[in-house]
Each structure stands twice: as structure tokens, then as C-alpha cells.
TrEMBL record:
It comes from the Bacteria. InterPro entries: AraC-bd (IPR003313), RmlC-like_jellyroll (IPR014710), RmlC_Cupin_sf (IPR011051). One of its GO terms (biological process) is regulation of DNA-templated transcription. GO terms for molecular function: DNA binding. Residues 33-108 form the AraC-type arabinose-binding/dimerisation domain. Keywords: DNA-binding. Pfam families: AraC_binding. This is AraC-type arabinose-binding/dimerisation domain-containing protein. The keyword DNA-binding applies. It comes from Paenibacillus swuensis.
Length: 147
């Protein structure tokens, strides 16, 4: 039995359209160790926070993108001196490919091939950092998705 809650996707996403974009700011970040049934991508628009996952601590800053696949336990910790603004994109994996509709055969972090950029041969690196010129493009794209 897990020692952390696993949030069902139906509590976060609509069943007929399992995709959601939200803004998470400051103390609204989830500081409780948890996992969820859906995939979550988070992009740091401003500020900084700590992300705990796979037994490690990662510092997140503006321009970082993190990927949390279904079932991976994680939590965030606020850094009061640098208030965070995260853009969270939550969705079910079958939004990427219908082949991912049945997740029952996927049990580990490595089962989710679409997160390949976050995996190195040595370990899991659940974040990517984008250069400033790419951040401008990403933030424009996020802005267009939010309107």
C-alpha cells in the first residue's frame, strides 16, 4: 500500500475532455507527497520552488519544465523569497496516443516513452531547462493556450 495519496484523474479532469491548464501560484502548490493517475507537465513562469521526487530534491526556476507521469510520487516546497508561478497542464496519456488508453500494463516511470527527454542513462531527471530565447516562445504558446 502506498504511503501517499494517489489523486484520481476524474477529480481533476473532465471525462469527456481529459485535458486542463491551470495556474498555480505561491502557497497554492501541493506540498503534500502525492501522485496522480494522469500526466502533469508544469512550466515555471516566475520564481522558484523545490521539487521532491525519486528520492531527490530538484531546484526549479523560471524556464524549467517538469514532467510527472502517472503514479510517480512527488511534492513541491515553496521558497518564500522567490514566489512561484507554475503553469500546470494535466492530461491523460491517451490524449497523446490512443495506444496509451489502457494504463494497466504500465507500472514504472520508464514505461512512459513520451517523457524520453527527461530520462538519461544514469538516472531520471524530471525537468528540462529552456534557454531564454526558447522561454519566450514557450510562454507565447502557453499564453495562446490559456486564451
Amino acid at each position: 500500500m502506498n504511503e501517499f495519496p494517489i489523486y484520481p484523474y476524474k477529480g481533476v479532469l473532465a471525462e469527456n475532455f481529459p485535458f486542463k491548464i491551470s495556474v498555480c501560484e505561491g502557497t497554492a502548490v501541493n506540498t503534500v507527497l502525492h501522485a496522480h493517475e494522469h500526466l502533469q507537465l508544469s512550466y515555471v513562469m516566475t520564481g522558484s520552488c523545490l521539487h521532491y521526487t525519486v528520492g531527490k530534491e530538484f531546484n526549479l526556476t523560471k524556464g524549467d519544465l517538469l514532467s510527472i507521469p502517472p503514479g510517480l510520487e512527488h511534492r513541491l516546497s515553496n521558497r518564500e523569497e522567490w514566489p512561484i508561478q507554475l503553469i500546470q497542464i494535466d492530461f491523460m496519456p491517451h490524449c497523446i496516443s490512443e495506444n496509451m488508453k489502457d494504463l494497466s500494463h504500465m507500472h514504472t516511470f520508464m514505461d512512459f516513452a513520451y517523457i524520453q527527454p527527461f530520462i538519461s542513462e544514469e538516472n531520471v531527471v524530471p525537468k528540462l531547462h529552456f534557454a531564454a530565447h526558447k522561454q519566450i516562445q514557450i510562454e507565447a504558446l502557453i499564453g495562446s493556450l490559456r486564451t
